[in-house]
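Here is one chain, start to finish.
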Amino acid sequence: MVAAVGSSPDESRPHRLLLVDDHPIIRAALRAQLNGVPGEFLVVGEASNARAALKLAEAHGVDVVLIDLELDRDWGMDLLLVLKSRFPELRVLVFTAHDDPMLAQRAIDLGALGYVAKTDDIALVDALRAVARGEVFLGPSIATHLVRRWRTRSGQLLSDREVEIFRLIGRGHETKDIASALGVSVKTVETHRARIRNKLGIRGVGELIVRAALFARGQE
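Its structure:
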């Protein structure tokens, strides 16, 4: 699923990764898994709470952070908010036991690029690769929940131009880039975005990004 944000990290070196989970055994398992993919990721730090995570993120020039929601004395969503406010270009994947579409939507709203439930039967490294590239990645259980919820809403058909803009949003293009590519003004693109949200019953920017990413993936 594609929805790029920010600038791309230097692809000539491994992505510098911070693991934030309050279970040492899980961190060890994740580290072992990622160490088995040489050249792509370098685990530069591990933390069990928000304070330690923030110190490590600042000290090691981290590119990607994997965050559990249940931390030692902390709530991962609060950490996500602080991380994205201090380091806007940071790419975050939430990896949690909470298989909850509302939490997933909130995480995306706060700036996470991915949300995977620990019960999902996927290769976590694939999720991290997508997030490191600046793409949105949803675990299958979360994606299924969200699609079912969206299908219960009434909507109208999008125009051809709205479909094109929706697809470009899903592929990671920002409003100014879409305007330039289509030869229209930024205000025109913003108007189309508002119409898309209204027609599809989309309530926030996070939901727009996720739904556009799902749509763009279906067009590939």
